[in-house]
Amino acid sequence: MSEPDLVIDAKELTKVYGTGGSEVHALRGVDLDVRRGEMMAIMGASGSGKSTLMNILGCLDQPTDGVYVLNGARVDGLDRDQLADIRNREIGFVFQGFNLLARTTALDNVELPLLYDRSGRKLDSKALARDALERVGLGDRMDHQPSELSGGQQQRVAIARALVTNPTLILADEPTGNLDTHTSVEVLALFQELNAQGVTVLLVTHEPDIAAYAPRIMELRDGLVVRDHATVARQHAVLDPGGGEPVEPVESLKATS
């Protein structure tokens, strides 16, 4: 039985692709627990299994074996429709490529997940989308289309879209991968601020300098957990009111654009 404050409780997760002599073991018995309100980074190079693990934790795929309990509900073994309902209700996704609809306003992009709500709740989707955009500092950009926004603003729209359903977990896959150094710091600062408000955040990255913004880092290699440790998270830099460079130096953060 999972502890009440565990958002993620995963035991012995394995994932095998192919059969017979062509089998690829992407995960080899991964254990993971993430508590409510925690901010954590999952790190690993290409081929380490981190993307496979992310897909399973995000209910986009099923493990070959193992147990996965998300917010108290066992989700391994659910069918495709059940997984879709779980994703919509429990998880907010933020991707490297933003994944915004091109000729659609920021407000309508953020509202979109609420239109797929099949819970029967009567939601004021426009009001919730406005609140989410205000929360990420884009209250004055609601009517702008993605082409009218900077990369950092587009990622903030994507974060607002992830927040709008009030999910149990924000799952961010390489969220700064298309951003320059300065904008990456701003986005990581936003994740830290949201986490300070109680949002559970899981960052998936191959960059140590990105993972350093989380107080807990799990490292994968060849489908195995090789390290899971607490660390002193790098605190976000304070930006000056004029939009200039951060007051605290962030030279070690690599540009990824």
Give me a quick take on this structure.
The protein has 257 residues and is α/β, with parallel strands linked by helices. The chain has helices at residues 50-57, 80-90, 106-115, 125-135, 151-163, 181-196, 208-211, and strands at 6-17, 24-35, 39-43, 65-70, 73-74, 91-95, 169-173, 201-205, 216-221, 224-230.
Describe the structure.
It is a single chain. With 257 residues, this protein is an alpha/beta fold. Helix content is 28%, strand content 25%. It contains seven helices and ten strands. It has helices at 50-57, 80-90, 106-115, 125-135, 151-163, 181-196, 208-211, and strands spanning 6-17, 24-35, 39-43, 65-70, 73-74, 91-95, 169-173, 201-205, 216-221, 224-230. The chain has a six-stranded mixed β-sheet, with helices on both faces. Strand 9 and strand 10 (224-230) form a beta hairpin. Helix 3 (106-115) crosses helix 4 (125-135) and helix 3 (106-115) runs parallel beside helix 5. The relative contact order is 0.18.
